[in-house]
């Protein structure tokens, strides 16, 4: 899959991480210069891009668009600290979240930036019920709907070998995960296999439930409790809400969880500012 993505950008091979992030830095610089320059020519000639410019549309009111990144390698974290306004994080536990959060914030000063200039947003997958039982029933129902072929395919995406032909209700065979994207997550999943000895079905259910990110099954109060702990103890500046089904789960979050967060003073009751940048709480001054 990764090579297919590379070919979408005219590349026959996947470039090493340092080269990919050097390209991303230049891309970000060009993009910001185009937004800032408005109708003026850019005349950029770099290592990866030649862009005459300008945009053929008026610049946006905020003069630039927020940049959002993701990634966990050392190169990705340094790139995030240098150029990103926000980062999508994937942390399965609050301890992992705090470690990642601190690492990014500690990198900012060497790029002339302050901690409030980068917002760290872990993903959260909420299963919401008015009662705990209702939430758990929703989760169980979705897990039952996973087609086994799709489930085994998901494992392949996470660097596991092809497990088609094995009894999905039998134990996961002795395997090694391939080196590739998300290797750290795949290794963590393999450790869990060794420790818990799940069946293949149970393994792909773990993956489908979002093992690499913060999952929460419960009432609005329970979900708000968890989000508040992450937010107030150095694991998150906000969250990327990854609803497991639409539109029902998104509606439940807006109707049930948001009012609970508002009662605690953790979520706005009205928007401030008119631009996306202002509404996201992103400062005006960032590294170019």
Assembly classification: single chain
Shape call: globular
How many helices?
A: 11
Give the topology string: H per helix, E per strand. HHEEEHEHEHHHHEHEHH
The rounded distance between the terminal residues' Cα atoms is 32 Å
Structural class by secondary-structure content: alpha/beta
Q: Give the overall pLDDT as a whole number.
A: 89
The percent range for strand residues is 5-15%
Radius of gyration: 21 Å
Roughly how much helix do the residues carry, as a percent range? 40-55%
Poorly predicted residue ranges:
none
- DSSP E strands, number: 7
The profile of the biggest β sheet is: 5 strands, parallel
Descriptive account of the structure:
It is built from eleven helices and seven strands. With 288 residues, the protein is an alpha/beta fold. Strand 1 and strand 2 form a beta hairpin. Helix 6 packs across helix 8 and helix 9 crosses helix 10. The longest helix has 21 residues. It is globular. The two termini are 32 Å apart. The model has no long low-confidence stretch (mean pLDDT 89).
């Amino acid at each position: 899959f990764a090579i297919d993505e590379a070919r979408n950008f005219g590349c026959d091979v996947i470039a090493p991480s340092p080269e990919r992030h050097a390209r991303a830095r230049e891309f970000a610089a060009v993009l910001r210069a185009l937004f800032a320059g408005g109708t003026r020519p850019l005349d950029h000639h770099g290592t990866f891009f030649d862009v005459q410019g300008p945009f053929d549309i008026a610049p946006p009111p905020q003069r630039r668009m927020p940049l959002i990144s993701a990634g966990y390698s050392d190169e990705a974290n340094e790139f995030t600290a240098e150029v990103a306004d926000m980062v999508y994080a994937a942390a399965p536990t609050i301890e992992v979240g705090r470690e990642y959060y601190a690492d990014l914030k500690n990198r900012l000063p060497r790029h002339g930036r302050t901690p409030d200039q980068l917002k760290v947003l872990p993903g959260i997958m909420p299963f919401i019920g008015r009662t705990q039982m209702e939430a758990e029933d929703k989760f169980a129902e979705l897990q039952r709907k996973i087609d086994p072929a799709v489930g085994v395919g998901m494992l392949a995406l996470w660097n596991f070998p092809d497990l088609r032909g094995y009894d999905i209700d039998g134990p996961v065979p002795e395997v090694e995960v391939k080196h590739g994207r998300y290797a750290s997550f795949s290794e963590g999943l393999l450790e869990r296999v060794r420790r818990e000895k799940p069946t293949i079905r149970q393994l792909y259910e773990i993956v489908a439930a979002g093992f690499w990110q913060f999952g929460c099954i419960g009432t609005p109060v329970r979900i708000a409790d968890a989000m508040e702990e992450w937010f107030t103890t150095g694991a998150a500046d906000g969250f990327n809400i990854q609803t497991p089904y639409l539109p029902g789960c998104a509606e439940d979050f807006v109707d049930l969880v948001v009012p609970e967060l508002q009662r605690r003073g953790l979520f706005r009751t009205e928007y401030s500012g008119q631009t996306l940048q202002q509404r996201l709480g992103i400062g005006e001054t960032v590294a170019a």
